[in-house]
Amino acid sequence: MIVPKRASRSSGPPRAAPRNGHPDGDRRETGLPVGPVASSRSSERSPGPARDPLLRMVSLARPRGARFALGVLAGAVATASAVALLATAAWLIATAAAHPPITALGVAVVATRALGVTRGVARYLERLVTHDAALRTLSDVRVRVYERLARTEPVRRFRSGDLVTRLVGDTDATQDLLIRGLTPPAAALVTGAGVVVLSTAVLVPGGVLLAAGLLLGGVAVPLLAAAAGRGPGRRAAAARAELATALVDALHGAPDLHAHGAMAAAVARVEAADAALTRVARRDATLLGLGAGASALVAGLTLWGTLLLGVAAVGDGALSTVGLAVLVLTALAAFEVVAPLPAVAARLGGLRASATRLFDVLDTPPAVTRRPAVPVRDEPGLRIRGLRVRYGPDGPWVLDGLDLDLPPGRRIAVVGPSGVGKSTLASVLFRFRDPDGGTVHLDGVDVTTQDPDDVRRAIGGVPADPHVFDATVRANLLLARPGATDAELSTVLDRVRLTAALAAAGGLDAETGPHGDRLSGGMRTRLALARALLADPRVLVLDEPTAHLDPETRDAVLADVLDVTRGRSLVLITHDPAGLDALDEVVDLAR
């Protein structure tokens, strides 16, 4: 017998004004975060002054700091060996021109060979150590991102294509920063100081000029490149995200776009996003070329200045001809130290934008929190008291003082028109979000004091628009119980009347297609229901299991639901009150 029951409310009007047209906060329609008052909590993420995203990204490598230090040392040895190799070669050639005894050149010959070998070995070790440490750090970052997505469900807070860019390109920027933005500058600092000391020992004015040139080429030019690259880097990150979003939207929405004649517009959007990214890439290439040109100009001017100073010193007798050769070629080799820095600096803008986007994901506040434990009451079943939920600190109450009792084995329906708070109630029960007021107890235990995964094993079911993975029917079912046998899977398919419908397609081996497109709407709903039954939660929550179905299919699915849930605690959420006579109680949230 259907017993209409008014959902009790502590205060306020019967229904609050819609927020953005959807007071229910329905995840399918509004795209709102599945988290408790996300806008209010976002302000709590940064209690102190914000750290630079690049520094935060570098700090991710702190556990492998020793490896990176070893890589910097190896890089400095490789660069220093290159400089020393050219200086030794200069001394060897200049000295050999005077036709000394061959024994006088023996040490230089051996040193040349040794430096050549050392340079290659050190460069290999530098690449090996730094790439190993960077890849391990990148792996850790990916794990952190995936764990954050799994635990806080910020997936719905980002558009799908943009999220893919954050997971791939922006996460990979960690590796680029650590390999190209950390090791070269540190190695340049160590080697550059040594080269300046060597040149100063040969000729003081030459050493001073070389120091000035290295400062210009290794500090001033990179700083200008970094300042000029900040805007293009930020625009490049946004352009990549826009291109990925437009492409994913066009691919996933292709059937509807074709049906409405909008595919041309979608393709035009992809082309426009690609053109915007190409323009940014051209500006970036221009910037890199200007940085390389400026660095080469500084190197050339420094070399000419060193040559003039050296020639003057030779004329004054303050420097030998051999010393002149060593001084000039050392100055030439020294700029190998700072040559990569302008290109690295020019990319810092893009790396900073990627880091900002990466930490937007990592800093997403938890959708649910675990509160301190409270004493357990002797109250079997599900008990809701004074439940209040809203989607913003100043937004209307979607649920305002809801009371609900579900003793073990009782089956109730929660009905009401769209926007009344039904899916919000399901989100609270599934622990997709925390209540903003009131309590939800299961067998006398406040669910907010328990691990969310433990609660979901006890309270489970079918959320609104359940996802069907692009895999076999068997793989989709095994998500609920990985150790289930084929016999158990076939039994649960029989219970939801899917066996006959899937027989021609291969039964358990039938492919569901992307988003379950190879199945009808009713079959997808039945598959999701079978998955929920296989999980066997103590309280089964079904959120709109008959939505989007024609009346005949809806009645058949509803009859199957009521048949397979006999003796089980059930919360059936639906906007359609038809066919609910077999339930123990109907709660109308609109009353």
UniProtKB/TrEMBL annotation:
It comes from the Bacteria. It is found in: Membrane. CDD domains: ABCC_MRP_Like. Keywords: Membrane, Transmembrane, Transmembrane helix. Residues 69-350 form the ABC transmembrane type-1 domain. It is a multi-pass membrane protein. Residues 21-30 have a biased composition (Basic and acidic residues). Residues 382-591 form the ABC transporter domain. InterPro entries: AAA+_ATPase, ABC1_TM_dom, ABC_CydC/D, ABC_transporter-like_ATP-bd, ABC_transporter-like_CS, Type_1_exporter. Residues 1-54 are annotated as: Disordered. The chain crosses the membrane at residues 68-94, 100-118, 186-204, 210-228, 287-312, 318-339. This is Thiol reductant ABC exporter subunit CydC. It comes from Pseudonocardia abyssalis. The gene is cydC.
